[in-house]
Design goal:
Order of helices and strands: HHEEEEHEEHEHHEEHEEEEEEEHHE
Strand order of the largest sheet: 4-1-6-5-8-9
Distance between the termini: 50 Å
Number of strands: 17
Shape: globular
Low-confidence stretches: 1-16
Structural class: alpha+beta
Radius of gyration: 25 Å
Largest sheet: 6 strands, mixed
Number of helices: 9
């Protein structure tokens, strides 16, 4: 509650010498001194392939996340649910916040006559929508002309720059699992490892083939073998290119055993499974090494429907290795020389 007319004054003023100004303000003065900002709420929705729902509108050329202005006296989460219902015809509740963004008054592209004072934008997690829920989208007669599911790296070319930064920061916050991100003009005030490495800024390489358990059959060409390597806490190692921000599983180690393979493009892409070597050898400086849950690794990849089957196989292997399930926690970057784990 603001301190107004009952605010304390200096001891000098109490003594009556008037040597220091007081801090008393009337309610009118205090109200006039406060910054006025708009408030908005949007919802970040993905499909099962990790693509982001954006919509085309009839009043501007770029695309938007579903959402809009918070009405007077309306809670932001209630506004988010109302906007999705009005724009997409889908009922839901979105209590989990992904980001809160401060948008400056001098943001480029806003007409001066609008008198834009700046805005606080809340980004809520709409979750992953199933095909049935996507099929249930019903657009209104006006305003929303189409919806699309966009590769995260394509948002920068589809959206206003600030909107794209905000959406990608919110998506990284969702993958990271460390709570809502505080943003200023779409940029995190405290960058996570995913932010620092620019994860999802380039298109994910699709590997949509079918999943097959066990070793690769004789005679099938082998490409790009990789491994699920578990740390003692149940997380796995993922490599992030410092140049592109793309995510990759590491190469197999001698002690890893066959888990299965992806059959795609006429070849097998084998996966093995094992424990992280201890001590971990020095890595390629072109890649950052992070520990992540298997679910986080999948969310950074484009593996298509077979990703569910592979993920189930990974957890089965974790159980066989007597390792615990790891809750979603922020991804941890390992030093280049590798700690003795």
């Amino acid at each position: 509650m603001p301190q107004l007319t009952d605010q304390a004054v200096s001891e000098d003023e109490d003594e009556g010498d008037g040597s220091r100004p007081g801090t008393r303000m009337t309610p009118q003065e205090y109200g006039a001194s406060r910054a006025a900002l708009w408030t908005g709420a949007v919802v970040l929705v993905t499909d099962s392939d990790g693509r982001v729902l954006v919509q085309s509108v009839d009043y501007r050329p770029d695309r938007l996340l579903p959402g809009g202005a918070v009405d007077a006296g309306e809670a932001p989460a209630a506004a988010a649910a109302r906007e999705v219902r009005e724009e997409l015809g889908v009922d839901g509740r979105y209590p989990r916040g992904l980001a809160v963004d401060w948008i400056p008054a001098d943001t480029p592209g806003i007409p001066p006559e609008m008198g834009f004072p700046g805005e606080i934008m809340h980004v809520y997690d709409g979750g992953t929508w199933t095909p049935d829920r996507i099929d249930g989208i019903r657009l209104p007669a006006q305003e929303i002309t189409a919806v699309h599911f966009a590769e995260p790296a394509d948002l920068a070319g589809l959206m206003d720059p600030g909107d794209a930064r905000r959406a990608l920061s919110a998506l990284r916050a969702r993958v990271n699992g460390g709570g809502a991100a505080l943003l200023e003009d779409g940029r995190p005030t405290l960058a996570t490892a995913l932010d620092r490495l620019g994860v999802l800024r380039t298109r994910r390489t699709p590997l949509h083939g079918t999943w097959h358990p066990g070793p690769v059959p004789a005679g099938l060409p082998v490409r790009e073998p990789s491994a699920w390597l578990f740390a003692p806490d149940g997380r796995v190692l993922v490599l992030i290119s410092r140049t592109t921000g793309s995510a990759h599983l590491p190469s197999p180690v001698p002690a890893s055993t066959p888990l299965g393979y992806r059959h795609a493009d006429g070849a097998a892409h084998p996966r093995t499974v094992g424990r992280l070597p201890s001590p971990l050898p020095a890595g390629d400086p072109a890649y950052a090494r992070l520990l992540a849950t298997p679910e986080q690794v999948r969310e950074l990849a484009d593996w298509g429907p077979a990703g569910h089957a592979e993920l189930a196989a990974v957890h089965g292997a974790r159980i066989r290795l007597s390792l615990p399930p790891s809750p979603r926690t922020p991804l941890t970057e390992l030093p280049e020389e590798g700690p003795d784990r």
